[in-house]
Design goal:
The chain is of the alpha+beta class. The chain has one domain: 2-Layer Sandwich (GMP Synthetase, Chain A, domain 3). The chain has four helices and three strands. It has helices spanning 4-14, 44-55, 58-61, 73-82; strands spanning 19-23, 29-35, 65-71. A hairpin with a 5-residue loop joins strand 1 and strand 2 (29-35). The protein is globular, with a radius of gyration of 12 Å.
Length: 83
């Protein structure tokens, strides 16, 4: 069974990130918050595709569901200030 920490490591290894938080208790369903400069100039679908690419075949085998929230560093800073 895969852990949230492993999913986080997989993402961080393949995608340059400023911040990654992954939550999930059951080993198959996860929520991820990812901040990366790589998302700059990309729409949400393209951003999510980068995340899925970082996880590769794990999305078809080990991870059943992944809810993704992606942010550029500027968007994240704006969220933090509002929060």
């Amino acid at each position: 069974m895969i852990t949230a920490e492993q999913v986080k490591t997989y993402i961080e290894t393949a995608l340059p990130c400023e911040y990654v938080m992954v939550e999930g208790e059951d080993g198959r369903h996860f929520q991820a918050y990812i901040v990366s400069g790589q998302f700059q100039g990309k729409n949400m679908v393209q951003q999510h595709q980068l995340v899925y690419k970082s996880l590769g075949e794990r999305m078809n085998q080990e991870i059943h569901a992944l809810s993704i929230k992606t942010f550029t560093p500027e968007q994240w800073e704006s969220q933090v200030q509002l929060g």
